[in-house]
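Teaching soon. Invent one.


***
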Amino acid sequence: MNAERCYDEFYLVWESSCRNFIEDVKFASSVAAKSSRLKLHVFLRKDTPVKALPPKDNWIESHFSLTTSPYASDTGLIAHLLGKYGDFADLDNDEISQTRVYLVAEREDKKKKRGWFNADAADKNELQRRPELAHTRMFPGT
């Protein structure tokens, strides 16, 4: 008998103020992580010092940027999400329905001021040039 399992994936930028998220989730993660239901994707800049790296654990996956530019981690996170979930036609419906995706973001409006992943601020000209963007499915938690 196969019970339907749900998988939780969390995505965060390490340079943001979200570092404490790992500590906050650790107390609840031991059971979830052991059952392979929890995955945390941490995006870091290439020049992150060794002493400042996130803890190593089997449920934490680090993704290093290729550059040291100020928003390299943000760009890496977006590229990863678009690469993984950008084309739902290639994904199995069961795989999509069994995965919950969360974006761990800062509370401040820094991201919004930069226009980061803001669907409401989409340029109409861009939608006219690339009509496939009009059908883009947004990720839960964004």
